[in-house]
Amino acid sequence: MFARLRSALLAAAFAAGTAVSAASAQTAEHTNSIGMRFVPVAAGSFTIGSPDSDREADADEKPAHRVTISKPFLLGKFEVTQAQWQAVMGSSPYEQSSGARSNPYFDLPGMAERVRKPDNPVTVSWNEAQQFLQRLNEKEGHKRYRLPTEAEWEYAARAGTTTAYSFGNDRGQLGRYAWFGEDFATGSPHPVGAKLPNPWGLHDVHGNVWEWVQDNYGRYDAAAATDPKGPASGSGKVVRGGSWHVTAGGWRSAHRKEYAADYRGISIGFRVLMEAQ
User: What does the domain layout of the chain look like in residue ranges?
Assistant: First the structure.
């Protein structure tokens, strides 16, 4: 009876947009038909970007400004894996002609074997991610799956923190939370969920693979915003979170980078957002 009451209270808090703790988020997880696990994220406000005092920040992380996320949502606990891609699409993205413009590093000795493990995050283009989302929506019989917006991604990655990383400002702790700093000779993405999660139970928001978000790339505006969706058009899409490779350099919560929508790298994947009913 207590368990049922706790579940009802959590559902009510989530529907009302009340902040939930990491422990509550873990209790209220949702799992879909192919085993993808989703963590609920309550509505709220936060400061996106980096302050002028941050010496590591790039110009496109500024100006920091206030953003309100007006609706709760569910976000993938992990990055989408190769096995999940195959369950939805029926084949590996590396064995089909998808029109993606691939990174030449795929052809390095041993890279194909290291990249294509079932529990590794899938590495695909933004366009391919959209194809997956369309198929997943059809499979589940609704239209609630999509990529997070850039603001939703940073809000969830920060998980209520205001520090450089979701675990604080100490770069020395990064290895506990992220796969990072590897080279092309021996490195690659790693199985999802092997590192510590952020305070809201999300794994690999720092490192492993960059994550596509829905938005076109563009500079920030200083004005406060509610549910921003980025510019209406642009030359490329935004990726977040940094990757396993030493050149990524962008493992901080605010860091952002631009890639063309048809570009498939060996270090760019994605995480699925599920809209709340």
Answer: 2-275
Q: How far is CA 92 from CA 97, 235, 261, in A?
A: 10, 28, 19
Residue type, position 94, single letter: Y
Q: Which CATH number fits domain 2-275: 3.20.20.30, 3.40.1190.20, 3.90.1580.10, 1.25.10.10?
A: 3.90.1580.10
| pLDDT above 90 coverage of the chain, percent | 78
DSSP conformation letters of 198-257 = -TTS---SSSSSEEEEEEEP----SS-EES----S--SSEEEES--SBTT----STT-EE
What is the spatial distance between Cα 169 and Cα 162, in angstroms, rounded to a whole number? 9
CB 174 within 8 A of CB 180: yes
Per-residue pLDDT, averaged over 184-206, amounts to 97
User: Which tokens is 95 given?
Assistant: 């064995």
Give me the residue label for tokens 């990174």.
103
pTM of the model: 0.89
273 phi, psi to nearest 5 deg: -100, 140
Which of 243, 212, 245 has the alpha carbon at shortest distance from 108?
245
